[in-house]
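Predict the 3D structure for this chain.
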Amino acid sequence: RNCVFLIDGLGWEQIKAHPDEAPFLHSLLPTSRGGTGQPITAGFPSTTATSLASVGTGLPPGEHGLPGYTVRNPESGALMNQLRWKPFTAPKVWQPYPTVFQLADAAGVRTAQVSSPDFEQTPLTKVALSGGSFLG
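Done. Predicted structure below.
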């Protein structure tokens, strides 16, 4: 069994620097007794939409199609916010590849993600993290 524990905006260095603020997370660090956690570094740019798509697809931004916070839609010329998905564009136009959750499902591996119910049906979740069970 494996667990990817991702908290948007919370960095490895912050956990190391503030052990009293997050004692459980700090206990997972390899520098702690018994800790075996390993850091994941963000690609570039280190925005939420780009990073979630990279984690969810296993692809770099230039391949998965979510290369930044705000990008120009080549069809309309309009600027699109890829976190809020405004103005709306069909999600699969931007990110046509299967997610790691979908690939795991196809291979018979059960997966689940735990997040706020507010995110379950968002276009970003659909293109970057779909597949498996969603627990919100």
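The CA atoms of residues 84 and 124 lie 8 Å apart.
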